[in-house]
From TrEMBL:
<protein>
    <recommendedName>
        <fullName>Alpha-1,3-mannosyl-glycoprotein 4-beta-N-acetylglucosaminyltransferase C</fullName>
    </recommendedName>
</protein>
<keyword id="KW-1133">Transmembrane helix</keyword>
<keyword id="KW-0328">Glycosyltransferase</keyword>
<dbReference type="InterPro" id="IPR006759">
    <property type="entry name" value="Glyco_transf_54"/>
</dbReference>
<dbReference type="Pfam" id="PF04666">
    <property type="entry name" value="MGAT4_cons"/>
</dbReference>
<dbReference type="InterPro" id="IPR056576">
    <property type="entry name" value="MGAT4_A/B/C_C"/>
</dbReference>
<feature type="domain" description="MGAT4 A/B/C C-terminal">
    <location>
        <begin position="365"/>
        <end position="484"/>
    </location>
</feature>
<feature type="domain" description="MGAT4 conserved region">
    <location>
        <begin position="105"/>
        <end position="346"/>
    </location>
</feature>
<keyword id="KW-0472">Membrane</keyword>
<keyword id="KW-0812">Transmembrane</keyword>
<feature type="region of interest" description="Disordered">
    <location>
        <begin position="59"/>
        <end position="89"/>
    </location>
</feature>
<dbReference type="InterPro" id="IPR057279">
    <property type="entry name" value="MGAT4"/>
</dbReference>
<keyword id="KW-0808">Transferase</keyword>
<comment type="pathway">
    <text>Protein modification; protein glycosylation.</text>
</comment>
<feature type="compositionally biased region" description="Basic and acidic residues">
    <location>
        <begin position="78"/>
        <end position="89"/>
    </location>
</feature>
<dbReference type="Pfam" id="PF23524">
    <property type="entry name" value="MGAT4A_C"/>
</dbReference>
<feature type="transmembrane region" description="Helical">
    <location>
        <begin position="7"/>
        <end position="26"/>
    </location>
</feature>
Length: 490
């Protein structure tokens, strides 16, 4: 029964999409009639349940934002009846408000004189525990590109959050890390006002998703709609990624070559096999996609809606670059209490990330090492929540990897794994695990046990540990990958 209902939704969305395209085109030439209201009246009988729910969104949409003193549409209940509150029509529909805002959205960066070849859009929101992948994502894009390539693309970071304190904190960090790129126009940072959102309290639950998940994915669709509208005139093509991915080396050149090789008309090209990551569009289509995502914002997730839109535009098969050029690396989702344990097995640079055995948040610590890191495989990666690793070379006797805790900790289990499926020889061959309990600077330690390849200890662990140290006891010709560190606390 559920399958039939979702199939019906799909048919409705496809039929609606054909009408949306024509309505948007007409709207451009008639200076914007009430697109959603007219379209909904065409698609559904007003007495039907779904018609009524869409009409609620359309009518409620006229009073969005913190300045509204009441919902545009609500239910006032007494013991005997349910009545509809009056509808205010003092504000334009959401798609018109989104169109009116983009030029005011820019927080950092500037517009380049010439149109770029590609815009890379990165929406970012605050995650639980303030986990932040954004800076590494942007850094990895820059590292994977040549100076010449950087002249041909622009990165647009969309801070899709209404928490102004958080936005200012992120801006300070971006200013510090990417000041040169901001000044050149390579990076732009934008945000949006609250009035681009409508009231999410009366959304229909689909796919048996929780109310919270439906609200989350609806906001996500509206965020995409805003970002697409902002980016429509920046470049010839637009690609959407997330704030917790890394690119393959030479990704930009691979994208250019793949576009050149296309011999038929296309609506969307895929450069990842995961969700909405790596979907590339003609920038000329972004306005149309923005309208479409707004209209069906609460029906389905964005990647599903885009799949329907492919069919609407007569692209009936996915056109996917293999291998994938973008890898998902985050674990903490933007949806509260959700862990996103997924990686792209078709990713070009398979060594870049690795699925960890455990997903836990280790105690806060400073990581110190005298090992030489290779490329962007930095020392703190295996210690943090995520699928990144530390890769070092020229490993010699006496090399160390220290975890110095901010305050003493009590542990029930220590799990540390070295090596990787693609590099099975890059393990720790001869080492020791040491522990400090009396010195916050980790100058005095004692040996817990020998360490070969994988270290697991779940008994006889001292209390009030101030640091843990992995020490190399013999030279080795192979490189070393520290893949995962999981420390279980009381």
């Amino acid at each position: 029964m559920r399958f039939k209902r979702h199939y019906l939704y799909g048919v409705i969305l496809i039929l609606a999409g054909f009408i949306v395209i024509n309505v948007v085109i007409i709207e451009k030439h008639t200076h914007g009639t009430k697109m959603e209201k007219d379209l909904v009246a065409t698609l559904f009988d007003r007495k039907s349940h779904h018609s009524r729910q869409i009409r609620l969104l359309q009518e409620r949409d006229t009073t969005l934002g913190p300045e509204s003193d009441q919902p545009a549409y609500g239910m006032q209940q007494d013991k005997n009846k349910v009545t509809e509150t009056p509808v205010r029509h003092d504000k334009p529909p959401i798609e018109h408000r989104i169109e009116a805002i983009p030029e005011q959205a820019l927080l950092r960066g500037k517009f380049r004189k010439l149109k770029s070849y590609l815009t890379i859009g990165i929406p970012s929101v605050r995650r639980q525990g303030d986990m932040m992948y954004l800076y590494d994502t942007v850094s990895s894009l820059l590292r994977a590109s040549t100076d010449t390539e950087k002249n041909d693309f622009v990165i647009v970071i969309y801070l899709a959050q209404q928490d102004q304190k958080w936005i200012q904190e992120v801006l300070l960090k971006i200013d510090k890390l990417f000041s040169t790129e901001i000044e050149s126009g390579l990076i732009q940072v934008i945000s949006s006002p609250a009035k681009i959102y409508y009231d999410f309290t009366h959304l229909i639950r689909t796919f048996n998703d929780s109310t919270e998940r439906v609200q989350w994915r609806t906001k996500q669709n509206l965020d995409y709609a805003f970002l697409f509208k902002y980016c429509e005139n920046l470049s010839t093509y637009y690609i959407n990624i997330e704030d917790d991915v890394i690119p393959a080396k030479g990704f930009f050149n691979s994208i250019q070559n793949f576009i050149r090789r296309q011999s038929v008309d296309w609506f969307c090209l895929d450069f990842s096999s995961i969700g909405f990551i790596g979907k590339l569009f003609h920038s000329r289509d972004l306005n149309l996609i923005s309208h479409y995502l707004i209209l069906f914002s609460y029906f389905q997730p964005a990647d599903n809606l885009i799949d329907y839109m492919k069919k609407i535009t007569t692209q009936f098969k996915d056109i996917r670059h293999k291998p994938s050029l973008f890898q998902h690396r985050g674990v903490v989702s933007s949806l509260r209490d959700k862990k996103q344990l997924i990686i792209d097995k078709l990713f070009k640079d398979q060594i870049a990330v690795s699925q960890k055995k455990y997903v836990i948040e280790n105690p806060k610590a400073n990581i110190e090492t005298d090992m030489i890191a290779y490329d962007h495989y930095v020392p703190n990666s295996p210690y943090l929540v995520g699928n990144d690793l530390f890769w070092a070379f020229n490993i010699t006797k006496g090399n160390y990897y220290k975890m110095i805790f901010e305050k003493p900790v009590n542990l029930t289990k220590i799990y540390i794994n070295t090596g990787h499926e693609k590099k099975p020889h890059d393990i720790l061959y001869n080492g020791e695990m040491k522990v400090g309990t009396s010195d916050l600077k980790c100058n005095r330690t004692e040996t817990l046990a020998d360490f070969h390849e994988t270290f697991i200890l779940d008994q006889s662990i001292p209390n009030d540990i101030t640091c843990l140290v992995i020490e190399v006891t013999e030279d080795q010709k192979e490189w070393l990958i520290i893949r995962e560190i999981a420390l279980f606390q009381y």
